[in-house]
Fold this sequence. Notes:
- Belongs to the peptidase U62 family.
- The protein is α+β, with helices and mostly antiparallel strands.
- The chain is built from nine helices and 19 strands.
- It is about 25% helix and about 35% strand.
Amino acid sequence: MSEVAISQDASRRELERLAELAQDVIRRARAAGASQAEVSANVDTGLNVNVRLGDVETVEHTRDRGFGLTVYFGQRKGSASTADLNADSIQATLDQACAIARYTEEDPASGLADASLMATQLPEYDLWHPWAIDTGEAIALGQRIEQVGRAHAGITNSDGASVQVGESLSVYANSHGFVGRERGTRHSLSLSLIAGDEAGMQRDYWYDTVRSADDFISAQTLGDKAAQRTLARLGARRLSTRQCPVLFSPDIARGLIGHLIGAVSGGSLYRRASFLLDHAGKQIMPGWLNIVERPHLLRGHGSGAFDAEGVATRDSALIENGVLARYVLGSYSARKLGLPTTGNAGGIHNLVVEPGHADGGTPHDFSGMLKLLGTGLLVTEAMGQGVNVITGDYSRGAAGFWVENGEIAYPVEEITIAANLRDMLAGIRAVGGDVDPRSHLLTGSILLDKMTVAGE
């Protein structure tokens, strides 16, 4: 039996304990003079095992607690937190938050989200799946994954395999009377390998992350995938500088969508630090493209009935027929912009980039996306932080494969890909049906009509 796994009943008891503590602290904050108060409390437990070359490198058991309190005295705000849930620490945290609030400047945008927006239906969305694996079993699984990968001819070394088990219990409560309880599990497997030939060494990896261990790909599949990706990079070349179409693999495409979210999020907008400032209602992507937030997917990595302020989540278009339908706002940024919150305090929930292409018809799988690319660059790795959300300038190191006539020709490395995000978003030719399920940003591969590729 796992040293980590919390039973169904034990998890519910712990949630109730956290909820009672949160409500008690809110009552005490109001008694201390706060006009509003909110509490976030969590208990996270985990097991992390790393093996390398068949030997155990690390075994880590974690149990982390957090308790954060924010109080409002009118429109003056004070926040404090502690990792210790005993009575003295909680009282000290409350005293500190109140002291901070009394001496801060008033902020017209501060305060809880409107009471009328609080979630009233609180389903769990099938997120709680404790993994009954003990340390010995986790070590054996990591060794098995690594053994599969190292068995491939040409693999010369390993950076190791990891097995991670995670469980999280959290409560958010505020002085509107809202109390939200959430519990979720997240487990992952990964393997990183090294291959070598006369031209040099290459490294690559693969991983899987799930809510329920029943949904993992097999150890055989993961080990094979990590080895195949690593071996495929042998003999990598550089490219001469050129402009060409570029296909982002699904995990790299996810980063492009992440830059879009950053540019339409409240903090960037009210600071006037976004290339998409004042673009709500405007066309920024092709007319066939839709992106929808779906917070209520079963076992979704970003599923939840409420956001970090208790506001009810709902299905909502972000991009509708290429038009930016709305921004991504919590109540603070919404007030700064004179807009309503979109229920995104704490971030986005399960953003689905719907597959499609300009010609309509059935979405392409990965091989179909390669054929649509024709001759150009497939990017499977992007490096560096060369993305400026203020101007939209995008320039990052990259590696991947040169594709000719819809077939992978050879691996490439030590190149830079560059364009402007405005042009990249408008120049999307297709989104594949090869959706990567390992994130709350759900997208297939994305084909861009052109980027500058700088190499030799």
